[in-house]
């Protein structure tokens, strides 16, 4: 049962298994996107706090430390204990996530289950990471040994706060690294709560440190730090470029980036139109459209185009938007005013540039950051809504004649995160898979 006003237990920085104020004494507000009202003030980390977290993380990683000498299987047991605690506090965490992020409570509850599954999966890898022995000429013994990188700085976005934390923490913990986690400034509350569970599970001091703050200060300090060995970032392409440059200029630290997308979904004329419309609807509208892999360019073959547009419009009109704590709500608010402004600007560009607005097209209500589920048809490739990542509940439907044409247009983008095809013809599907320039293909 969701808790509409969950207790906020943790608002300080988590460094070396202790709750501390920022060295500057500064705080920042985290807002409830449903009401646009402040939930609570959170300690604001900057460079000095990141420096302190790095000292703690390096101490936890030094040779002979408790973390470096613990059995690999024991690391796995610690991670499994963390899973048990996440399950124990699942209702509280889901309520906190919905309060701070705005996604429907059911979605938050589901996300925690996925996070638990992720951590359990990586816990199983702890004692199964090994090198090879290599036969070489001569009287020699040659082998490889896989070792943890060291101190990892992880910077996560606001669209899936708990899941993103799990995706960043799990592989680092499984391999024996230590971590400095910076949650998005819009959604720091669940990351801080997870930090309390990490301590309760028994992880040694300094293994995980959580430093809420802003990108240009705390995020930059992580990216530029000479004693951080790797940075992992999920977020916008623009910020990813900055982080990559900072890593190169500092100590050539390793970098993992998961960035933006404008993913095509191709719907062929042999598809079941009802099924295709439902799949495409979920591909763009799930999580309020705040998905890096969202199917945000819907290409539909000419023969079924008009029928598809009608069904897509009906689905969008029927989507329930409102209070994320109310059962049956499918779409809560966008994350903040800046994102609301961006979405409204791009919707307006679609109208101005000649796309046909089938439904939605504006703000939902006057309180909070809600956007009407929006569908555009007659969209052209050169329109802003077809080129730019909207990151909101806006579906753009484009028409194509042949699969070859659709593939050429699908690949005409600066992004390449994901793609999808809906067809009953396995040959079309395989052709698509081999030709589309995308990392994940459905």
Highlighted features:
7-stranded mixed β-sheet; alpha/beta; globular; 5-stranded parallel β-sheet; single chain; 442 residues; 17% strand; 15 helices
Explain how this protein is built.
With 442 residues, the protein is α/β, with parallel strands linked by helices. The chain is built from 15 helices and 18 strands. Helix 1 packs parallel to helix 8 and helix 10 (273-285) packs across helix 11. The mean pLDDT is 97.
Task: Write a brief caption for the model.
With 442 residues, the chain is of the alpha/beta class. Helices cover 42% and strands 17% of the residues.
Total strands: 18
Helix content: 40-55%
Major sheet strand order: 14-15-16-13-12-17-18
User: How many helical stretches?
Assistant: 15
- The overall pLDDT average reads 97
User: Largest sheet, described in full?
Assistant: 7 strands, mixed
Oligomer: single chain
As residue ranges, the low-confidence spans are: none
| Terminal residue distance | 34 Å
The radius of gyration computed from the alpha-carbon positions, rounded to a whole number of angstroms, is 23 Å
Topology:
Elements: E1 13-15, E2 18-20, E3 27-32, E4 37-43, H1 47-61, H2 66-69, H3 72-88, H4 90-101, H5 105-123, E5 133-134, E6 142-143, E7 151-155, H6 161-175, E8 178-182, H7 189-201, E9 208-210, H8 215-224, E10 230-234, H9 237-250, E11 254-258, E12 264-267, H10 273-285, E13 297-301, H11 305-318, H12 337-352, E14 356-359, E15 374-377, H13 384-387, E16 394-400, H14 403-410, E17 418-422, H15 426-435, E18 440-441
């Amino acid at each position: 049962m969701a808790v509409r006003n969950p207790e906020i237990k943790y608002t300080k920085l988590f460094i070396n298994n202790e709750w501390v104020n920022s060295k500057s004494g500064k705080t920042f507000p985290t807002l409830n996107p449903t009401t646009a009202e402040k939930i609570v003030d959170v300690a604001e980390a900057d460079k000095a706090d990141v420096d302190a977290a790095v000292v703690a993380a390096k101490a936890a990683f030094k040779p002979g430390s408790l973390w470096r000498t613990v059995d690999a299987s024991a690391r796995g047991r610690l991670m499994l204990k963390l899973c048990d605690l996440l399950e124990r506090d699942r209702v509280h965490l889901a309520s906190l996530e919905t309060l701070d992020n705005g996604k429907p409570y059911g979605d938050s509850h589901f996300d925690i289950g996925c996070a638990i599954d992720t951590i359990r999966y990586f816990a199983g890898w702890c004692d199964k990471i090994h090198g090879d022995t290599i036969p070489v000429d001569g009287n020699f013994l040659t082998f490889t040994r896989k070792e943890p990188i060291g101190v990892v700085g992880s910077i996560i976005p606001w669209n899936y706060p708990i899941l993103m934390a799990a995706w960043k923490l799990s592989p680092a913990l499984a391999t024996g690294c230590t971590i400095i986690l910076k949650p998005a400034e819009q959604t720091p509350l669940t990351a801080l709560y997870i930090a309390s569970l990490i301590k309760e599970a028994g992880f040694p001091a300094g293994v995980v440190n959580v430093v809420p703050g802003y990108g240009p200060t705390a995020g930059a300090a992580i990216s530029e730090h000479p004693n951080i060995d790797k940075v992992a970032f999920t977020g916008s392409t623009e910020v990813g470029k900055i982080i990559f440059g900072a890593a190169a200029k500092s100590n050539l630290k390793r970098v993992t980036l998961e960035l933006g997308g404008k993913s095509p979904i191709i719907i062929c004329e042999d598809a079941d139109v009802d099924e295709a419309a439902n799949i495409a609807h979920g591909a763009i509208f799930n999580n309020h459209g705040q998905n890096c892999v969202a199917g945000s360019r819907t290409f539909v073959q000419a023969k079924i185009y008009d029928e598809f547009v009608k069904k897509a419009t009906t689905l969008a009109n029927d989507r329930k938007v409102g209070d994320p704590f109310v059962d049956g709500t499918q779409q809560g608010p966008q994350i903040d005013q800046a994102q609301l402004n961006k979405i409204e600007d791009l919707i307006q560009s679609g109208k101005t540039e000649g796309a046909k607005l089938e439904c939605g097209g504006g703000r939902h209500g006057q309180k909070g950051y809600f956007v009407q589920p929006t569908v555009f048809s007659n969209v052209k490739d050169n329109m802003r809504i077809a080129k730019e990542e909207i990151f909101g509940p806006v579906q753009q439907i484009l028409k194509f004649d042949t699969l070859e044409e659709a593939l050429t247009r699908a690949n005409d983008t600066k992004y390449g995160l994901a793609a999808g095809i809906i067809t009953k013809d396995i040959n079309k599907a395989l052709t698509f898979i081999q030709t589309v320039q995308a990392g994940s293909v459905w």
